[in-house]
Write a structure and sequence with these properties.
Layout (H helix, E strand, L loop, with lengths): L1 E7 L1 H11 L2 E2 L5 H10 L3 E8 L4 E2 L22 E8 L26 E7 L4 E6 L11 E5 L7 H17 L20 E2 L13 E5 L1
Parallel strand pairs: 3-7
Antiparallel strand pairs: 1-7, 2-7, 3-4, 3-5, 5-6, 8-10, 9-10
Protein name: C-type lectin lectoxin-Thr1-like
InterPro entries: C-type_lectin-like, C-type_lectin-like/link_sf, CTDL_fold
Pfam families: Lectin_C
């Protein structure tokens, strides 16, 4: 989870989290909830909980949520979004005043924090849920006609730059990491067989995998 001090409405926070990470935070176990409770400063912080039978924003249902006393109360008919409150009070200071921080899938509770429902238009700090982005690897085969030594490091580096520029021109928004796949002898390019160069007799054709 990633905590942001920027003040946003619940919808603004969700949009930001979905663009920059995965979604608003939807903690599901003791470790995740302990982390959120530890990192959260004292105050009210948006999480991924909203009034639709009170689901997490990733559409997971939760019937074991531990609300603060009297909540959710939908005060004024506008309390449709959930937040976690971290309070300075705890059972060690006031045995009659437990502030609960609950999580889906269990009935355990913690003192020092709780869930509450609030007006989605109020601006608060928030937690995003961040999952590792899976890396994609793709092998490309490149055929080059040139009289240059294509295994020269300078030539290979210049060609990588050109390939990266071409990918951007074709609409690739990400910034890929390109590298040559070396053969067992350390070279990258090798000459094609004669039968593959029937119409290229006057040029040196080399092929490599990128």
């Amino acid at each position: 989870f990633v905590y942001y001090t920027d003040q946003k409405t619940w919808m603004e926070a969700q949009d930001f989290c979905r663009q920059s990470h995965t979604d608003l935070a939807c903690p599901i176990n003791l470790i995740e909830n302990t982390f959120v409770q530890t990192v959260a400063p004292y105050g009210m912080n948006w999480i991924g909980f909203f009034r639709d039978a009170w689901k997490w924003s990733d559409q997971t249902n939760n019937s074991a949520i531990k609300w603060s006393s009297g909540n959710p109360n939908n005060a004024g008919g506008k309390d449709n979004c959930g937040y976690v409150v971290k309070s300075m009070f705890s059972s060690s200071y006031n045995p009659w005043n437990f502030f609960y921080f609950g999580f889906r899938g269990t009935t355990d509770v913690y003192s020092g924090g709780w869930f509450d429902d609030g007006d989605c238009s109020v601006q608060r700090a928030f937690f995003c849920q961040s999952l590792p982005t899976p890396k994609k690897r793709q092998v490309m085969r490149v055929v080059v006609q040139s009289d240059q030594d294509m295994n020269d490091p300078t030539v290979k580096a210049a060609l990588l730059v050109k390939i990266q520029q071409k990918l951007k021109e074709q609409g690739m928004t990400e910034n890929p990491t390109l590298r040559w796949k070396e053969q067992s002898d350390g070279s990258v390019f090798y000459k094609q067989k004669e039968k593959r160069r029937e119409n290229m007799e006057n040029n040196t054709t080399r092929v490599c995998e990128l």
